[in-house]
Design goal:
alpha+beta, Nucleotidyltransferase, domain 5, Helix Hairpins, 10 strands, elongated
Length: 423
């Protein structure tokens, strides 16, 4: 089945009828601004500023009802920018009252702000009118309500990204601490975040404490934290290096406190990361088609959860190309007359969804035999550059995932092989 984006655009335009009141809302943290037009784009009524609370939302509802009564309109559609998290409450409140809520791309709002007055001026009232005009012209997307499991995945993945940043930050600061206080530790432990290295830092934070020990004393203390200690050879090397360390010997108490806090932050972040990933796996078990996707070699629970959390229920996409457009991985061409520009990905979509699709594709190319064969065929036979082949396989992956979600079928390796091999 061919996916035609223009057909979708026509459907969005046809939804706006002569009976519609088209409302644009400029979202802010505390006070939103609403403007209204009819299906032809003629401004209806005065602007409305309303607060981001229950009273403000009721003011908006009464304003809409007055305009509908005054102009004999029976339907309403509300458009807004997905600005941060401030749009979520008003969107949910309106949806619960049977209003059709749609979203417009902030980038397009910026591009279209000169359509009315041919000036680059910007204000909340003007932005709300620009949003209403865009909805009237069909430049919007439906705000889909997703099942709770997919919303949970999105929240959990956002939480995981934050925790991973903390883990990486703690690791980097521990590396810096070692470079300043005890740089010789790297000669004994190649991996500073390994069990032996961390146990040494917990027990003996400074070289001065290590240099006063005997090898058997060090080994005995290691046993309190490790089931299998590092051995006498490393113990002797550590003590010898600590005795002639070139690390800083000033402010030892301050450095010891700093290291104690860094290790506590690292331990806490690692524990939280395990909790989040455990919860992600449990949520995936509640999604019917996730089990068959996880059975595909090269697809991990985290990457799949990232795609499902950002895109929602994949069975709601009519084609894999729709998922690519949602992620901003669709191709964009720039050409004019005899000049043909370079094809590039549009990047007009969800950046985190792009990241997870790309990461999953790379994992499949490294671990999945069918994707390895397709990548080799693209590079060796079709003479594609490696990155172009990867981006093409992103499209293949999107079509596979959407197909599996819509049909409920398991992964069929034979369908993904290059035509020459399949024959």
């Amino acid at each position: 089945m061919k996916f035609k984006s223009q057909a979708r655009q026509n459907q969005l335009i046809e939804k706006i009828t002569a009976e519609h009141l088209v409302i644009g809302i400029d979202i802010a943290q505390q006070t939103h601004v609403a403007r209204a037009v009819n299906f032809r784009g003629i401004v209806v009524g005065n602007p409305l500023s309303f607060s981001n609370d229950e009273d403000g939302f009721h003011n908006l509802l009464q304003w809409v009802q007055r305009l509908q009564t005054a102009h004999h309109l029976t339907a309403a559609i509300v458009g807004m920018e997905p600005t941060g998290h401030y749009w979520l409450n008003v969107s949910r409140w309106l949806s619960e009252r049977q209003f059709e809520v749609v979203l417009v791309n902030p980038h397009l709002v910026k591009k279209n702000k000169e359509n009315r007055d041919n000036t680059p001026s910007k204000s909340d009232k003007k932005d709300a009118l620009v949003i209403a005009d865009m909805v009237k012209n069909g430049y919007y997307s439906i705000a889909r309500t997703t099942p709770e499991a997919f919303t949970e995945l999105r929240v959990l993945l956002s939480n995981r990204d934050f925790v991973v940043k903390r883990v990486v930050s703690a690791k980097n600061q521990i590396h810096r601490w070692v470079d300043v206080v005890f740089p010789e530790l790297r000669q004994v432990f190649k991996n500073l975040m390994g069990v032996g290295s961390l146990a040494t830092l917990r027990l003996f934070p400074t070289p001065a404490e290590l240099s006063e020990l005997q090898p058997q004393d060090l080994i005995q203390r290691w046993k309190s934290l490790m089931k299998r200690h590092c051995g006498e050879r490393k113990a002797r090397a550590l003590i010898a290096l600590a005795g002639r360390s070139v690390g800083s010997r000033q402010a030892e108490q301050a450095y010891k406190l700093h290291l104690k806090q860094l290790l506590a932050e690292y331990d806490l972040a690692c524990a939280q990361l395990k909790d989040v990933e455990r919860e992600i796996v449990s949520v995936l078990e509640r999604i019917p088609f996730a089990k068959s996707m996880l059975a595909v070699k090269g697809i991990s629970a985290i990457s799949l959860a990232g795609i499902l959390g950002e895109a929602g229920d994949l069975s709601g996409f009519v084609h894999g190309n729709a998922l690519l457009r949602h992620a901003g991985l669709n191709l964009a061409e720039a050409s004019s007359g005899k000049w043909t520009g370079q094809m590039k990905i549009s990047k007009r979509g969800r950046s985190r969804l792009r990241r997870f699709i790309f990461m999953m594709t790379m994992s499949l190319v490294m671990n999945n035999p069918e994707f390895q064969a397709m990548h080799a065929y693209n590079v060796n036979v079709k003479k594609m550059k490696k990155m172009r082949s990867i981006m093409k396989l992103c499209g293949k992956l999107a079509r596979i995932l959407v197909g599996m979600a819509r049909t409920g079928q398991a992964y069929i390796p034979q369908k993904t092989r290059p035509l020459q091999q399949a024959a």
